[in-house]
Amino acid sequence: MDLPIDHYKIVGLPSGEENFKLTINDINKAYKRKALVLHPDKNPHNPNAHANFTQLKSSYEILKLESSRALFDDLLRVRREKALRHREFDAKRRRMASDLEDRERSCSAAADAESKANEQSILRQLDEEITKFRAKKRKSYQTVSPSVDFADPLVFPRQSQNSTPCVPAHEHHAFETSVFEKLKKAVQKQK
């Protein structure tokens, strides 16, 4: 909603609590001074001169009658009270918003700590499961051939890329594949 016009300011008088002390003579004097300045004959180059002068006349008409002036004063009082309530409400709203943000931050920090703890717990459980799985595989391979630990990286050591293999790569790969195939068959027979 746009703010309504303040007729006291248009006539050139102070608006607020002081307007209750103004007399009709004060309003007449202020109107005459402002009319001399805003009259369209005094401002021939101003395209808004006529509109400004018309607004001045209508404001004067409202202020010179006691009944319309009393209604306008009541309107100004209500606006001031509303503005005061709005400022108080804004201060309360800012406090509530900052309190809410603080609580959200503390809850978020607690939730982050809880999720990290859950994540660490799940990772530990996963590591334990992997360790159990590896131990089980190692045990099953040792039942097939107890003299060789197939989980040990020294059983089939990888040669570095710079060294020359003692066996051609395709033969070494074929040997590895055949050993693993034999192991798979032996494990399947045990099941």
UniProtKB/TrEMBL annotation:
What is the name of this protein? J domain-containing protein
The UniProt record lists the J domain at 6-76
In terms of Gene3D superfamilies, this protein maps to:
DnaJ domain (1.10.287.110)
Q: Which organism is it from?
A: Saponaria officinalis
Kindly name one Pfam family recorded for this protein: DnaJ
Q: Which InterPro entries match?
A: DnaJ_domain, J_dom_sf
* PANTHER family xref list: DNAJ DOMAIN CONTAINING PROTEIN, EXPRESSED
